[in-house]
């Protein structure tokens, strides 16, 4: 630690939280709940990315796009047709209405009532115990950095000459692009690709890797890609964006594909190739707080930075970039900063779930095959095809898969991937099972309501049981029954 900093004798606050996104809000909430004097500083809007440019607007847009997709399937549901007239601007206004409805949950009013002092302003950490905001210096025993991340824009030649959107700005669109390029095949790119395609844009999704959703197993991302193709998306995997040009007033992207140049003309561009942690401009450099190679702040298992009273959580710390992992880390950041001198807790990353809200949804907890192989962890696979499930059939959603990895010969769950309708909800049973060390036998022995999609969870457990049936014992029992008949 830099010895030039003088530690104050007394502090204005127990904790200052820098940034009021998912991570900062939950940190402040917990600190106030345990009666600490906590100050939350936000330079822009309380709620951060999740509320304004992330989870909330994207899920609202997905819902509207799904309505259209269902209307197009009217015949499947027994209707002759269902024509939907719409103005894209109204759909985008609906997204803003949804944000406005949720806004009070993250507001200064709510957090003030919870006992958090909220300050609107840009914070700068001036020493391990002082933070400057609006020209005032506040002293604090601890600091939690929850400054979030921003979309990464790759330095592709010509990209600054064409207008591009990112997940920060796409919500300003009011006119549906005719031809949209989505650069990036990760979750954000996939969710938005499908939305725009469903509204009627011709979307080319450009990804340099061989698959979309590259972190998922091959057949899982193939199911999503297959649906995208069916819905008219040009899925351009193995396409490396090389250059943007404006030719005769038209935007053109040059991609390299199998050694050849491919030209794609487009009207609008959405860049969704990843997010970079916000680590500059608020004192990290001056304090010498190190960052990782991916630019997230370096923290130890307790979320402490190189200054033991300065913690980091959420997107700025990684390794995950989700609202629920930000909230998970926030508990550790709050508790370890306030009580760590007496007892501190290592962050538990053993059961981390996530979902990509495409149609079909993809949800995962724990290991998939790719990761199990990488980590050389032995596994067995059990699957259940959702096309067989009564409720999925009644809902015209009879597609998808549950894939469970277990310890060989045991019912202990190593990881689960679900593809299909409401996968993000269905996975909760496995998250809870893994967290509480419940195996497939117990899931099989649990009553699931008929007819629900959740029954699929029981059926995959049933498939596991069948393949682990005690064969010798069953042979003996068969003989026993034969004997009883004679
Ligand atoms: C399109 C999209 C869809 C997404 N969908 C999902 C989803 O479905 N589910 C999910 O779990 N996650 C989703 N995410 C990810 C999720 O939004 C983020 O993981 C989450 O918002 C991270 O929260 P955070 O608090 O770490 O950062 P942020 O929400 O970015 O908050 C950081 C805050 O810090 C403030 N700040 C920064 N510097 C300072 C400073 N010096 N002084 C004061 N304030 C400062 C910023 O203004 C900002 O408000 C999505 C993201 C995107 C972009």
Task: Give a written overview of the molecule.
With 486 residues, the protein is α/β, with parallel strands linked by helices. Helix content is 33%, strand content 23%. Helix 1 packs parallel to helix 9, helix 3 (55-72) packs across helix 4 (88-102) and helix 3 crosses helix 6 (187-199). The longest helix is centred in the first third of the chain and has 18 residues, at 55-72. It is globular. The N and C termini lie far apart (85 Å). Flavin-adenine dinucleotide is lined by residues 18-24, 41-44, 48-50, 53-55, 58, 122-123, 146-149, 167, 188, 278, 282, 314-316, 321-324, 326, 357.
Chart the SSEs and their pairings:
Layout: E1 13-18, H1 22-33, E2 38-42, H2 48-52, H3 55-72, H4 88-102, H5 108-113, E3 117-120, E4 123-127, E5 130-133, E6 136-145, E7 149-151, E8 179-183, H6 187-199, E9 202-206, H7 218-230, E10 234-236, E11 240-247, E12 250-257, E13 260-266, E14 268-271, E15 275-277, H8 284-287, E16 310-312, H9 323-339, E17 353-356, E18 361-366, H10 369-374, E19 380-385, H11 390-394, E20 401-406, E21 413-420, H12 423-426, H13 428-435, H14 440-444, H15 455-467, H16 471-485
Parallel strand pairs: 1-2, 1-6, 2-3, 6-16, 8-9, 8-14, 9-10
Antiparallel strand pairs: 4-5, 5-6, 7-15, 11-12, 12-13, 17-18, 18-21, 19-20, 20-21
């Amino acid at each position: 630690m830099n010895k030039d900093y003088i530690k104050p004798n007394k502090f204005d606050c127990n904790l200052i939280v820098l940034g009021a996104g998912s991570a900062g809000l939950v940190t402040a909430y917990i600190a106030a709940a345990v009666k600490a004097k906590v100050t939350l500083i936000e330079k822009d809007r309380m709620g951060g990315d999740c509320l304004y440019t992330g989870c909330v607007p994207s899920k609202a847009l997905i819902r509207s796009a799904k309505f259209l997709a269902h209307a197009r399937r009217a015949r499947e549901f027994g209707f002759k047709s269902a024509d939907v007239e719409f103005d894209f601007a109204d759909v985008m206004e609906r997204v803003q209405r949804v944000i406005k409805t949720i806004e009070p949950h993250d507001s200064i009013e709510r957090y003030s009532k919870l006992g958090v002092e909220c300050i609107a302003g840009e914070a700068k950490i001036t020493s391990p115990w002082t933070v400057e905001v609006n020209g005032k210096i506040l002293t604090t025993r601890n600091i939690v950095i929850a400054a979030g991340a921003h979309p990464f824009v790759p330095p592709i030649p010509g990209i600054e000459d064409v207008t591009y959107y990112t997940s920060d700005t796409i919500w300003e669109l009011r006119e549906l692009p005719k031809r949209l390029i989505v650069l990036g095949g990760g979750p954000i790119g996939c969710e938005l690709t499908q939305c725009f395609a469903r509204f009627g844009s011709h979307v080319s999704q450009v990804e340099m890797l061989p698959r979309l959703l590259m972190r998922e197993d091959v057949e899982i991302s193939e199911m999503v890609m297959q649906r995208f193709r069916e819905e008219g998306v040009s899925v351009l995997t193995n396409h490396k964006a090389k250059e943007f040009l404006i030719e005769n007033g038209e935007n053109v992207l040059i991609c390299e594909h199998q050694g050849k140049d491919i030209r794609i003309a487009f009207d609008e561009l959405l860049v969704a190739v990843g997010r970079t942690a916000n680590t500059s401009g608020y004192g990290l450099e001056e304090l010498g707080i190190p960052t990782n190679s991916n630019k997230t702040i370096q923290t130890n298992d307790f979320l402490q930075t190189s200054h033991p009273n300065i913690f980091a959580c959420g997107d700025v710390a990684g390794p995950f970039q989700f609202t629920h992992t930000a909230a998970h880390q926030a508990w550790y950041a709050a508790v370890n900063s306030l009580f760590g001198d007496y007892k501190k807790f290592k962050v538990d990353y053993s059961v981390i779930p996530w979902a990509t809200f495409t149609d079909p949804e993809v949800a995962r907890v724990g290991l998939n095959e790719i990761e199990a192989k990488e980590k050389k962890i032995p596994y067995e696979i059990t699957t259940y095809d959702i096309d067989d499930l009564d409720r999925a059939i009644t809902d015209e959603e009879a597609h998808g898969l549950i894939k469970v990895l277990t310890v060989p010969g045991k019912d202990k769950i190593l990881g689960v991937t679900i593809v299909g309708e409401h996968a993000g909800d269905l996975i909760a049973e496995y998250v809870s099972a893994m967290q509480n060390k419940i195996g497939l036998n117990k899931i099989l022995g649990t009553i699931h309501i008929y007819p629900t999609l959740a029954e699929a969870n029981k059926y995959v457990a049933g498939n596991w049981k069948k393949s682990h049936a005690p064969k010798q014992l069953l042979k003996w029992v068969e003989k026993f029954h034969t004997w009883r008949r004679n």
